Amino acid sequence: MIRIDAALDEAGLLLSCRVTGHAGAGPKGSDVVCAAVSVLTRTAFRTLSGREGITLRGGAPERGVFRMEADYSGNGRDFLSGAGAFLIEGFTSVAELYPEFCELNIHRERRN
Q: Which string of DSSP letters, residue by residue, matches 32-94?
């Protein structure tokens, strides 16, 4: 089972996400659920990395674990808003299509 924990601020902007586990929906290297979640997380991380006005921390320290924390200043807010919304929508789609292999938990926090 893949577990995704995402934190959004009061305005719905991405604060962080943590992805752990393996779906087990198919053989290693052919698991469509793992592939979908991996592509979403890697693409979001690469898209946000190096963007002016966005500070990003995290990565994949080991197989089956990914974490990301995001903060913004100035013009970074709009880009983070769009990228974060895309990521959450993608996670939601995977969790709805494969609920037995992917669990998504979204909670709200105050931005520091």
A: HHHHHHHHHHHHHHHHHTT-TTEEEEEEEEETTEEEEEEEE-TTHHHHHHHHHHHHHHHHHHH
